[in-house]
Structures are given as C-alpha cells and as structure tokens.
Design brief:
Elements lengths: L2 E8 L21 E4 L5 H12 L4 E8 L8 H5 L6 E6 L3 E6 L15 E4 L1
Antiparallel strand pairs: 1-2, 1-3, 3-4, 4-5, 5-6
Length: 118
C-alpha cells in the first residue's frame, strides 16, 4: 500500500481559547485531503481558508491509503494529535507544529515550528 499524507480540517470551537482546535477523525471532519507529498498540503490549506474562513487548523499524518473514499479502518481508529498541526495565520503564513513521535519517519524535523507564507 502507498504511504501518503492525510489532512483533516480542525474546528476552532472554543472562543475562550483561540488557539484550540479539535482534531476530528477522518470520518467526522468537514474537509479531508489525501496527497503524496507534505508540500501539497499548503495549497489545499489555502483553498480551505478561502472556503471556510481565515483562521483554521489542519491536522496531517502519514497513512497507508490508496484513496480518500476507502480509508482503512485503522487510519480512522488511530487518528489523534500525534501528527503535524498546520495553523493559518495573518499575513498568509502557516505555522507548522510537529507532534509526531521522535522515532516516527519524519518529513520535517521533530518539534520544530516552520512558518510558510501561502
């Protein structure tokens, strides 16, 4: 099976905590994306920002999946916050936080924050 990146749209449902964002499982998220390379997530996040609002969060994780329509059950069951968090910020930037296990195969250095302008 092919290892790809899956991203879900996180909802910011707590106005009292502006940086809080839920990490919905793929079967509960308002939007999903499945791509081959982590760099492909940024244009998708930009599209989501146009569609759903300026400040939003994407949660992304490497998964073994062929397509978004037939995600393996273990991908949904083991979805959690041990992944990349991509937050849109004013000025067109995206802040990336890496919450993955240090031993996991990494596309970005562990626990490093990266800002990228969209």
């Amino acid at each position: 099976m092919t290892v790809r990146w899956l991203m879900t749209l996180g909802e910011r449902t707590r106005p009292d905590v502006p940086q809080y964002a839920e990490c919905p499982a793929p079967d509960q998220a308002r939007a999903l994306a499945l791509v081959d390379d982590v760099g492909q997530l940024f244009p998708i996040l930009l599209g989501w920002r146009r569609e759903f609002g300026r400040e939003l969060t994407g949660w992304a994780k490497q998964v073994e999946a062929v397509d978004i329509e037939t995600l393996p059950p273990d991908v949904i069951e083991h979805w959690g916050e041990d992944q990349l968090r991509l937050d849109t910020m004013p000025g067109g930037y995206v802040q990336v936080a890496d919450y993955r296990d240090h031993d996991a195969q990494a596309a970005l250095p562990a626990r490093k924050t990266v800002l990228r302008r969209l």
